[in-house]
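Tutorial, part two.
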Amino acid sequence: MIPPGESPAFIKQSETFTFAGILFDMDGTIVDSTDAIIKHWHKIGQQLGVDPNVILQSAHGRRSIDTLQLYDASKANWEYVSRIEGEIPKQFGLDAVEVLGARDLLVSLEVAKAPWAIVTSGTRPLVTGWLDLMKLAHPRYLVVAEDVQAGKPDPECYRLGKHRLGLVADNDSTLVIEDSPAGIRAGQAAGCKVLGLATTHSIAQLRATGPDWIVKDLKSVRFVGRAAETGGVIVEISNALRAEE
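Running the prediction step on this input gives:
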């Protein structure tokens, strides 16, 4: 998300890197469901008697169970959270769009059987609901909100993602792709390289967290192939934000 008046300088030339695997966030990274989530929290806020705008100030990138704990602890359970999140793609599916470049990137990774996974603050019904609705590639490995004790920016989710891909826990050659400051911090704390997407937050907000790269969307990330000796994922990154900007 690049606000009016903000004109960051992106480098057009591309660079190629090899990573042990790629871990994707979901919302704002593969699917932009911002409008759907706003409508969802307005609905839940009305049911709870809480101003939905207050909820939305801190809900993005955060597990719903953690958000609900702040306003109604009786609703902070996985049965309730999984049910309400599973309804989002069904009720508000027309309000979500693919992030540019996501479909082609996921297909190319899956066809090559490259090591990739989705690591999200959403529940399994929410993630699979969006992937099914938009007919996007399903990962063989998935880390969802129910799988961890603490949500982002805690690094537990990305550490678990690396484990499920069979990668060494302290291997810093894993790439995390994120759109939120909390997610970027989680990836960094898990010892990963992090690419920030300017899809839902301002450049200034992303830059403040210090990701290794910032790009507009996934059109700037292209799968090149697998490394012959290691099986690593070769990726081309283009149109990245200048480090000094």
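The mean pLDDT is 93. In part three we will examine how such features are distributed along the chain.
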